[in-house]
Amino acid sequence: MTNKEIFLTGDRPTGKLHIGHFVGSLQNRIKLQNTGEYDPFIMIADMQALTDNARDPEKIRNSLFQVALDYLAVGIDPAKSTIFVQSQIPALNELTMIYMNLVSVARLERNPTVKNEIKQKKFNESVPAGFLTYPVSQAADITAFKAKIVPVGDDQEPMIEQTREIVRSFNNAYQKDVLVEPEGYFPPKGEGRIPGLDGNAKMSKSLNNCIYLSDDAETIKKKVMSMYTDPDHIHVEDPGKVEGNVVFTYLDIFADDKAKVQELKDQYQKGGLGDVKIKLYLNEVLQGILKPIRERREEFEQKPAVVYQILEEGSKKANLIAEKTLQEVRDAMGVNYFN
Ligand code: TRP
Predict the structure, then answer these.
(1) Which residue out of 152, 154, 193 has the highest number of ligand 1 atoms within 8 Å of its CB and is therefore the one to mutate?
(2) Which pLDDT score is estimated for 74?
(3) Model confidence at 339, in pLDDT bands (50, 70, 90)?
(4) Which of 98, 169, 269, 323 is a good FRET partner for 194, with 20 to 30 A between their CA atoms?
(5) Angle at Cα 12 formed by Cα 325 and Cα 153, nearest 5°?
(6) Burial class (CB within 10 angstroms; exposed 0-12, middle 13-18, buried 19+) of 336
(7) Model pTM?
(8) Distance 257 CA to ligand 1 centre (A)
(9) Is the pLDDT of residue 112 over 90?
(10) Which of 7, 12, 93 to mutate to test the pocket of ligand 1 (most atoms within 8 A of CB)?
(11) Buried b vs exposed e over 219-251: b needs ≥16 C-beta within 10 Å?
(12) What is the pLDDT of residue 92?
């Protein structure tokens, strides 16, 4: 094993990944992976996905394969990164149980991301205990690997903070620096989030406003042509609004030719530039980015045995590291009666 710093991150397998994931976190991981300065661990968080899908394990099982395909398609390279499956690492559960005693129920209820999700998911009075406590299990994910860096989207900031608290509590309670405090690694301000096709602030599967990494060329075009622009821009000759116009938001993020985007914006604001034209340009830009990703994805999709083998080997390697940390944790606590 190398002595490079470990970075760890992951996704819940509840569906295919979309271009929001790409902008929010996949790109950052690939960038860090390709510096060669880190030892990357990328986890498919199936146990966390089950915290609000306990009655639909089939969905998680299918999505696990889809997310693995998305990873490989965007350039997470198993020769450089360890891709593994959360449920196959038993030490994570044991660490979770141990950390659970260092976190108060009130603290769990204060986590803003979890609070939001509870509202959105309409659990009402029946929030699964596993859901409320998933930040503790996420702390186990991160600390089991002594990850220093956690590249994630902005919404995961509270999880990193809670992990840091748990690390301090643990090291303090057992008077030993066993666990490592992680740092979040976020996309540049304002660049980590893309709105949905419908203008909603968030691209999300449940809102049905996504472009998936796996969408075919025709689907992408259809989605782009249906995008939210400026509702008051009715005639081509009318002046149009650029702020809040999702087509321009996407162009700012995805188009390399910034001068051309600026030219289009100027013309659109003056009047005389139709929505169809800007959408066709965005379509061209997105097709250029997504075509090679889709082609790589299709190749791996034909070889499921290869994909599962990557996950199995990654899980074996991850297991060794997590077991070692668990042993250190037990030793620090003296929960090692028979050694
Ligand atoms: N909570 C993350 C998400 O919803 C997924 C996740 C699970 C994760 N464990 C992690 C992310 C550990 C970073 C580190 O996307």
Answers:
(1) 152
(2) 98
(3) confident
(4) 269
(5) 90
(6) exposed
(7) 0.95
(8) 34
(9) yes
(10) 12
(11) ebbebbeebbbbeebeeeeeebebeebbbbbbb
(12) 98
What's 217-298's CATH class?
Answer: mainly alpha
Q: Quote the ligand 1 centre to 171 CA distance (angstroms).
A: 23
User: Is there an atom of ligand 1 within 6 Å of 96 CB?
Assistant: no
The response to whether residue 141 sits with its C-beta less than 6 Å from ligand 1 reads yes
Query: Residue 1 pLDDT > 70, yes or no?
Result: no
| CATH superfamily, domain at 5-194+304-333 | HUPs (3.40.50.620)
- Give the residues across from 44 on adjacent strands: 11, 85
Structure tokens at 142: 């991160």
Q: What spacing in Å lies between the alpha carbon of 142 and ligand 1's midpoint?
A: 9
Residue span(s) of the chain under CATH 3.40.50.620 come to 5-194+304-333
CATH code 1.10.240.10 region(s) in the chain? 217-298
Which residue minimizes the CA distance to atom 3 of ligand 1?
11
Q: Ligand 1 mean position to 94 CA, how many Å?
A: 18
Ligand 1 centroid–CA 234 distance in Å is 43
Q: Cβ-count burial of 313 within 10 angstroms (0-12 exposed, 13-18 middle, 19+ buried)?
A: middle
